């Protein structure tokens, strides 16, 4: 038997054992994560870059309890709209947002709760006097959304790195949390080479030549692309095997050059790793930095403290999803303005 506390206060040790002063519940609903996540994804993407703290703040307390990440019936009733209906944009972009949000839920430390009907993107909110909108599954987009959720669940079950250390600090390393529109982190299992790289693009603009940090050089494989045509996206083929380049310091020992799909996410697994060079890695003219534990991030989690970037600077004048732009120059200008380094600067 499992006991779960649907509790929204900051009362400590709800899921800690009674003999250590806790309340003895197995899990506590992470209401803060749920509210912040929905508030973020309900926004028009043009405003998201100044509200990334809605996602990154949950990294600060993710190990305070043993959490459940709930998208429950409470969020899809009484005029709150279904999860699908909460998403911004046209129907295509609503599904793209929903797929990315489900990747965020599946890869964040904690256990998932998804209310029935949400797995295929039911448009109407739940009504206790009526059955689910099963007729939605006659629509190809809903059917593909159901296929995506099924695939994500099977992948989650097959990869211990996504759940084995949900409540251990060594279970995650945050690698990018100060970019205006991107989150990237690595989930670790108990085996040394068992890890999954997560990279999410939270705006509907494709990012070419984006550098995603990884722990080791070698070859990697993309195991999930939310923009796969089979899931309702537009991508029919892409480079599934990637080669990691040697990084510039211990914080980023290696990195992958990827194309981040517009309003999409990638899950990447190691295929054949190579050992790091024995010579300490360091930027030219600088001393090598001390390696950080897996659970610490080399990048600031305070990206929300930066000054908002204008819509014009961020997306330009034509943010059409059907015509992705090369935004490496734009990101370089943003980074220069914010005093940071562009992760997707053009490669030399």
TrEMBL record:
EC primary class: transferase
Keywords: Glycosyltransferase, Transferase
Gene3D superfamilies per UniProt: Glycosidases (3.20.20.80), Golgi alpha-mannosidase II (2.60.40.1180)
GO biological process terms on file: glycogen biosynthetic process
Source species: Lacticaseibacillus paracasei subsp. paracasei Lpp126
Keyword flag Nucleotidyltransferase: no
Composition skew (Low complexity), residue ranges: 278-288
Annotated InterPro entries: A-amylase/branching_C, GH, Glyco_hydro_b
GO molecular function, one term: cation binding
Leader sequence residues: none
Region ranges (Disordered): 278-348
Pfam families the record matches: Alpha-amylase_C (PF02806)
Domain Alpha-amylase/branching enzyme C-terminal all beta span(s) in chain numbering: 179-270
Annotated protein name in UniProt: Glycogen branching enzyme
GO CC, one annotated term: cytosol
EC number: 2.4.1.18
């Amino acid at each position: 038997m499992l006991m779960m506390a649907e509790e929204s206060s900051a009362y400590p040790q709800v899921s800690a054992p009674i003999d250590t002063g806790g309340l003895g519940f197995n899990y506590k609903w992470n209401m803060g994560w749920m509210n912040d996540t929905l508030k973020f994804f309900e926004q028009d993407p043009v405003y998201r870059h100044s509200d990334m703290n809605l996602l990154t703040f949950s990294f600060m307390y993710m190990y305070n309890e043993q959490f459940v990440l709930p998208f429950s019936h409470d969020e899809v009733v009484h005029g709150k709209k279904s999860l699908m209906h909460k998403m911004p944009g046209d129907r295509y972009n609503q599904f793209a947002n929903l797929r990315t949000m489900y990747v965020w839920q599946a890869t964040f430390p904690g256990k998932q709760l998804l209310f029935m009907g949400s797995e295929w993107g039911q448009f109407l909110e739940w009504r206790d006097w009526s059955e689910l909108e099963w007729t939605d599954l006659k629509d190809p987009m809903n059917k593909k959304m159901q296929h995506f959720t099924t695939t994500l669940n099977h992948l989650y079950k097959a990869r211990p790195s996504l759940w084995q250390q949900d409540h251990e600090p060594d279970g995650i390393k945050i690698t990018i949390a100060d970019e205006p529109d991107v989150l990237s982190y690595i989930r670790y299992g108990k085996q040394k080479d068992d890890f999954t790289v997560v990279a999410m693009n939270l705006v509907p603009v494709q990012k070419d030549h984006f550098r995603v940090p990884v722990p080791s050089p070698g070859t990697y494989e993309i195991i999930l692309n939310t923009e796969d045509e089979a899931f309702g996206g537009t991508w029919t083929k892409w480079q599934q095997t990637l080669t990691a380049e040697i990084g510039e310091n211990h914080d980023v020992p290696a990195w992958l050059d990827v194309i981040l799909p517009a309003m999409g996410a990638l899950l990447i697994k190691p295929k054949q790793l190579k050992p790091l060079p024995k010579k300490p890695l360091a930027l030219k003219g600088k001393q090598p930095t001390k390696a950080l534990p897996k659970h610490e991030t080399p990048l600031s989690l305070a990206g929300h403290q930066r000054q908002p970037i204008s819509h014009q600077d961020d997306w330009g004048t034509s943010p059409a999803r059907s015509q992705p732009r090369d935004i490496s120059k734009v990101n370089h200008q943003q980074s220069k303005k914010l005093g940071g380094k562009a992760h997707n600067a053009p490669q030399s």
